[in-house]
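# step 3/5: fold
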Amino acid sequence: MSTTVAVAGARGRLGSLVCEVVEEHPDFELVARLNRASDPEDGAAARILVDVSHPDASPGIVDRALGRGQRVIVGTSGWSADRLEQLRERVAATPGAGAIVVPNFSLGSVLGTALASMAAPYFDAIEVIEAHHPGKVDSPSGTAVRTAELMAEARGGRPVEAPFAEQPARGQLVAGIPVHSLRLAGVIAKQEVRFGGAGEVLTVTHDTHSNESYRAGIRAALDAAVTAEGLTVGLDRVLGIGA
């Protein structure tokens, strides 16, 4: 029997791709394409709810889905550490609940973040530059936020050298690491993490040239959501990378 899936934000770039992946997967059945005009209870019968909507709408969509006993995959940006902690508490208080939050479905991006986390303890200066298409409403991106948080964790609390961080042009500090956001036509997604050391600079770069790069990650998240319990943050945790 196929696992039924509803997609919130189905008309967007990522939502359209998620719908395609679900329809192509022999073990899943797409039963609802949800958008802003949908009734809050549309798609309530689906076993899995994939939320790729809007940062403002996402928490409410996810909360309703968990309340109905649905498994949830969250691909919407804007889930800060505070939001994730609230979600963790919500999931923990709901027996059998499962939620997977994926800041980026790209396998290359996940590996790039893992490499950056490996390098983070060895350099005192670290900065992140992320670029996305003009339609991306949030900045920094969820991927950049997660990358910065994982690098800070890898450093064990040792602060990054970030001179003049109070100046707006120096970017936004995320876990003590400056993050710079660009929104440009002609760009899908790109992230650079630059590490500065004595006499050298190391750069870890990931470029997304097509939304096709997200297909494998979406499939992996769908497969994991069927049996996942508790809160899982990051495709790296789904794939067992750096876990």
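# step 4/5: annotate
The mean pLDDT is 94.
# step 5/5: archive (pending)
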